[in-house]
Amino acid sequence: MSINPTPPPAPAERGTADPGPRDLERGTDPGRGGGAGRDGASGSDQRDPGRRPAGPRGRDFDTEGGDPGPRDLGREPGPGGGPQLSNVWVYKGRAYDLSEWINKHPGGEFFIGRSKNRDITSIIGSYHANPEKIEKMLERFALDRDARVEDVHPKNNAPAFLFKDGFDSWRDTPRYRFDDPQDLLHAVKARLRDPAMKARMKRMDRWFNITAAALAVAYVAVIATRLSVPAWMPIWLFVILMVMLRSSLAGFGHYAIHRAQKGATKVLVNAFDINYVALSFVTADGHALLHHPHTQSEVDIKKNVFTMMMDIPRWYRIPIHTLHKFGHTATGMTMRLVEIVKLTRQVGVADMYGSLRGALPHFIGAFAMRALLIGEFFLFLFLGDVWAWIAQFVAVLWVSTFLVVASHDFETDVDDLPEVETEDWAINQLNQAYDLKISGNRYVDCFLSAGLSSHRVHHVLPYQRSGYANIATEDLMAEEAAKFGVEWLPRRSFLFDRLPDQVNTFLGQKSRPAQEQGHGFFREHFSPQALKTSGSYVVAGFTGIGTV
């Protein structure tokens, strides 16, 4: 499978405490037999002979009681019990200090500040039209040494609940190759450099923005009509329009996340939150920097987040998850934002955003969206139309949730997915994503699907600024993919193909604890542990746990 052309230092050079990032060769999963388990086995890991034996329980820095972490990876604990990290970004196994680049980054301060203490090889390779040029620029910030395990945060500086137990970013981050001039990604980018194509992309981006602005006006008009003249806006029509408009505006926010985080985009990106699913202030990191470059790997947090509801007994799943997400809307996501403010103050505004001026638009936009969403609820409540708000909330939440998980095989465990036998990152991305069809019109579906209709192009070229630009690129990419033997499969219907699978998986299956313990229907729903899990899940929503 794909590896970087510049491997990490050999064990003899880097020391026995430095196993290096794993490549894409999946071996026996810990805990599934054949190697060291995650929870107590010791001995060499069969997937990576360079690793040291696993420590007791394979614990990490995010466990209770300030456990100093995975001794097998060689990190020394810091003053607070967490990892002792250096001021480093890792690229192709080498260490760089990009602190001075945070304020100068054309893509905005956020992406550089947020990727500190991570391996940014795949981020640079996937998010830049010319990563070779970026690589030359990086040499100005080189520390002239190989990366060490202390340089990489075990959980990517993200909440531990987003990852599987035992995950460590140094070991488990996939390593792809982006410097082969003969691969699909280079072929597509070469054609996109044509001046006519560049001009067309700019036109498509402009029309995308105009459409989004019109949808924002329609959104305000629909709510105002429902509240002022409800006879003109019956509840069934209001709910349908809210599903369509909130999904569409979230689609604009989706692409705003992938744009340079500069100027007004820092505020407008929060449109991604309007369908009650995500918190863009968190998602801009988890979606753009973890999911896209490392799709369907252990780094990809998207799968773990959207399968949390599977711990809930199936008959409780809809009401409990709905209450959980209402908790997010009411208080949870605001609490998470407050935590981010505190973290920013602790770490230092300059380290994350370059300056207070660079950070303020992010926070103003995020808190403004929270105020809008909860303000709408109280407006409907005070005007005596709260049931209309509840109806649209439930419909928007569940349709949007299924849309998000419909574009990948999230119902399949990562370890059960078929290996894609290719060293080409772009081909791998095409095999990991689906294009969706709702109405049949690609330009309409671009918004109805929250930006996920032209999903394959989006995954190969995540830096493109709009869904319309992706649509304009589809034919080109299909032609180039054919040259590499990749069949361009038809779009998959959301309503008649993906949605039935999602309903069966996420609503019809037993809870994970019931499957693991062999419980029948009664014990799945009425055991003390099931009731406790359900109650805790609701409370977690109001406190911001599970916020994405």
TrEMBL record:
InterPro entries listed in its UniProt record: Cyt_B5-like_heme/steroid-bd, Cyt_B5-like_heme/steroid_sf, FA_desaturase_dom, Fatty_acid_desaturase
Organism superkingdom: Bacteria
Compositional bias ranges of the Basic and acidic residues kind: 20-29, 45-62
Residue span of region Disordered: 1-87
Keywords from the UniProt entry: Membrane, Transmembrane, Transmembrane helix
Domain (Cytochrome b5 heme-binding) ranges: 90-153
One term of GO molecular function: oxidoreductase activity, acting on paired donors, with oxidation of a pair of donors resulting in the reduction of molecular oxygen to two molecules of water
Keyword Transmembrane helix appears in the UniProt entry: yes
Recorded GO CC terms: membrane
GO terms for biological process, alphabetical: long-chain fatty acid biosynthetic process; unsaturated fatty acid biosynthetic process
Transmembrane segments: 207-229, 235-257, 386-406
Ranges of Gly residues composition bias in the record: 30-40
Keyword Hydrolase tagged: no
Biased composition (Pro residues): 1-11
Name of the featured protein: Cytochrome b5 heme-binding domain-containing protein
Species of provenance: Tsukamurella sputi
